């Protein structure tokens, strides 16, 4: 077997990326994603593409934030690992899979090929997530009307709320940040993401009871692919009342009032309460995502 050749692409040969089969439907999933040609790589064996990766970041980012498209031909796990190891960017790997992929032998085999390549490259599984997409045909979730919502211009208010929310959390990324740098790091990473989103800062809202007690926060947002639920969080001392649904319903209504024709969202598979709220609000699961961390 001949050696693998790793090739960086540019605008002149970007079509090479499209020559590998797409059994997991990544192309349709990335219909709204803008990948830079120079952040794409392919692995060639005898001139044939046997693995490919597309690294992604926002339009103003100077380096990619993650690799969110990674495909490997059957039996070419080592080539996929070589591809991942060949780049200078040590960033998270996202693998998006069709719902119920474990129940389809062909889909499961294709997914396992990619998992094996990622592990050979030194990546470890961080979390499995559910991806949602609300559309108007699902109907707007009913607003319970129990809370009032107000914009808050002071980032310190959100920072404090995020520290409190993440002090008792099921979110794997927040738990990783806490392990690395404590609650301050977890809160700051969330704030940095909110500011990174191109949506207006004025959209961020705090929820209150009729008595004026803060309940939590919700962040209606746009990422580069479109409108999304940026964050839903209930303060620990306000949990047990189902307020996360109120926040999600309000966030959905807010985005639709701003012209959203769909709303994307995600939660960890282990976050059963939030998954139940998405189901109640009419958000169907459209993809499953596995996040891998580089060594």
From TrEMBL:
Matches recorded under InterPro entries: Acyl_CoA_acyltransferase, GNAT_dom
Ranges in coiled-coil conformation: none
Taxonomic superkingdom: Bacteria
Classification via Gene3D superfamilies: 3.40.630.30
Location of the N-acetyltransferase domain: 163-295
Name of the protein described by the UniProt record: GNAT family N-acetyltransferase
Classification lineage: Bacteria, Bacillati, Actinomycetota, Actinomycetes, Kitasatosporales
């Amino acid at each position: 077997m001949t050696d693998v050749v790793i090739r960086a692409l540019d605008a002149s040969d970007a079509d090479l990326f499209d020559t590998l089969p797409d059994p997991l439907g990544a192309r349709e999933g990335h219909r709204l994603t803008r990948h830079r040609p120079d952040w794409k790589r392919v692995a060639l064996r005898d001139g044939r593409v046997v693995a490919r990766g597309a690294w992604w970041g926002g339009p103003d980012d100077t380096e990619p934030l993650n690799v969110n498209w990674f495909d490997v031909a059957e039996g070419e796990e080592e080539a996929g690992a070589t591809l991942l190891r060949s780049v200078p960017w040590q960033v998270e790997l996202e693998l998006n899979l069709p719902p119920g992929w474990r129940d389809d032998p062909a889909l499961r085999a294709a997914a396992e090929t990619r998992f094996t390549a990622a592990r050979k490259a030194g990546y470890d599984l961080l979390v499995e997530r559910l991806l949602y997409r609300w559309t108007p045909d699902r109907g707007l979730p009913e607003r319970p009307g129990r809370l009032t919502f107000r914009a808050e211009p002071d980032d310190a208010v959100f920072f404090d709320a995020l520290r409190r929310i993440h002090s008792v959390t099921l979110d794997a990324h927040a738990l990783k940040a806490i392990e690395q740098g404590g609650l301050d790091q977890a809160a700051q990473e969330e704030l940095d993401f909110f500011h990174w989103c191109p949506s207006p800062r004025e959209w961020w809202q705090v929820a209150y009871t009729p008595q004026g007690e803060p309940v939590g926060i919700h962040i209606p947002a746009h990422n580069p692919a479109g409108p999304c639920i940026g964050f839903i969080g209930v303060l620990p001392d306000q949990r047990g009342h189902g307020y996360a649904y109120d926040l999600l319903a309000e966030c959905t209504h807010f985005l639709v009032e701003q012209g959203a024709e769909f709303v994307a969202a995600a939660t960890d598979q282990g976050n059963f309460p939030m998954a139940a709220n998405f189901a109640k609000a009419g958000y169907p699961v459209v993809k499953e995502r596995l996040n891998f961390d580089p060594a």
